[in-house]
Amino acid sequence: MRKELNIHEWSRKEHFNFFSKFSEPFYGITAKIDCSTAYKKSKENGYSFFMYYLHKSLKAANNITAFKYRIEGDKVYEYDVINASPTINRSNGTFGFSYLDYHEDFNTFCDLAAPRIEEVKNSKSLMPALSGENVIHFSSLPWIDFTSLSHARHYDFPDSCPKISFGKMTTVDGIQKMPVSVHVHHGLADGLHVGQFFEKLQELMDFDD
């Protein structure tokens, strides 16, 4: 479900109109998160660490209203639920895009995701059978401890979906950290909102069950 925002009464009206005219309205921020607790819990319970931090990231995004805004035509909508469209690596060195429904419960999320992930792994297609505007584009680069990241974009395509990428986990002084890159449309979200996302993600990685 979604609801249309009244742009004329929206507190972000001027910000939206200003940044939406840019040829590149997206900006990105990269920060490291402490994943020591989350990684330990994943291994103790036999969880896929990728699925674990993907779920926590999606859960955090669904807690930030700005991450649920989407531009469609000349209108802005707020979606009730945001799902995931992560890249899935294949054994032949390629990848495919997938579409995974969000569920607040981690085990249910994994159960729903498993057949779709297998479908992508066994397919040669790049694009998923299902998609929609109410997604976040996720990617994982577990080979690189990056400090910044950019995305290939078609500037003529009207995109407003956030893009979140995860890098290589490293251990320094007993603390396991991982870089996370977040790109958002500046007409919909400011640095404040990205900061709120990182705070929520760290909270979930540390304490969430």
CATH superfamily: Chloramphenicol acetyltransferase-like domain
Tell me, what's the shape? globular
State the domain count.
Answer: 1
Strand-residue proportion: 25-35%
Q: What series of H and E elements makes up the topology?
A: EHEHHEEEEHEEEEH
Structural class: alpha+beta
Query: Average pLDDT, to the nearest integer?
Result: 95
| CATH secondary-structure class | Alpha Beta
Tell me the number of strands: 10
Largest sheet: 7 strands, mixed
Radius of gyration: 17 Å
CA distance, first residue to last residue = 27 Å
- The number of helical elements comes to 5
CATH third-tier fold name: Chloramphenicol Acetyltransferase
- The CATH architecture assignment turns out to be 2-Layer Sandwich
Which stretches are poorly predicted, pLDDT < 50 over at least 5 residues? none
List keywords for this structure.
Chloramphenicol Acetyltransferase; alpha+beta; 7-stranded mixed beta sheet
List strands and helices in order, with pairings.
Elements (H helix, E strand, L loop, with lengths): L1 E3 L8 H7 L6 E9 L1 H10 L3 H13 L7 E4 L2 E5 L3 E7 L5 E3 L8 H16 L13 E6 L22 E4 L3 E3 L2 E11 L5 H17 L2
Parallel strand pairs: 5-7, 7-8
Antiparallel strand pairs: 1-4, 2-10, 3-4, 5-6, 8-10, 9-10
Helix pairs in contact: 3-5
Condensed summary:
The protein is of the alpha+beta class and 209 residues long.
